[in-house]
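re: ur question from earlier - yeah i can do the single chain one, its not a big deal. heres the input i used so u can compare w yours
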Amino acid sequence: MIIELPSTTTGTINKKLIELRETGGAVTLGRVLTLVVCTRESDNAEDVIDAANEASREHPCRVIVVTRGSRSGETHLDAEIRVGGDAGASEVVVLRLHGELADHEASVVVPFLLPDTPVVAWWPENAPAVPALDPVGRLAIRRITDATGAEDPTATIKSRLGSYTAGDTDLAWSRITYWRALLTSALDQPPHAPVVSATVSGLACEPALDVLAGWLADRIEGTVRRQTGELFAELQLANGDRIAISRPQAEMTATLSRTGQPDALVPLARRETRDCLAEELRRLDPDQIYEAALTGLSKVEYV
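and the output i got, formated as tokens:
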């Protein structure tokens, strides 16, 4: 069910939420966090809401979507309340800020934060330069960005270290969770030789591969190269063995190769935004390994 509230106020929206709770049950029961989504009024706004809804099926929450309209128009607030099948396992409050109100996201969000629950902020696009200093970011214990859609994804993911504050993360990091797991699992097999060099290859505009290279550079003593070309990650071991994961672009299955062993096919599809978001919502503590991967980016050689 979607309830439209044009040209409204935060007080009116809260009264409607209470009315829905009284007539339809305790819709806030079991909510484990508040997810605040900061985005623009754009064609992909519904995709962003859908991703948050899907993630909420694993993490029941109140989703507050703040979209900024034109700052030159009349100042007013339009809202939607979505519950039931239109809201996944959450309740969704969509706030559309117009005119001068577009510069006061945090003030509009505060009345809808659930008491005694952590706040997570997500910028699907156009994240602030320093998320922790953003007014909405100050409300959150976790701040999620996404360098993938940036104008210059590589420069954007590299800039995350300079602005890093405990609690920050980027969906480019969770997009490579399975890659990291496969590489770690392969290295756990005998003869346990150290890695002396690594190469990460793929699209130039894929920041997940940059942060994968940074993660490797932080963990090994040898050279890590990042190149443009076919999609693969390759490790050279001190004993001469080679471990590689390769996958054609847009395919769902990768090939895991290791010297002296038969190739193995492993499922490795590109992760959807909703899955990456759900993973990031599982932890509310600082991700020190992500921070280390950002630090490792400075050691990566781009060829």
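The radius of gyration is 22 Å. not sure if urs matches, ping me
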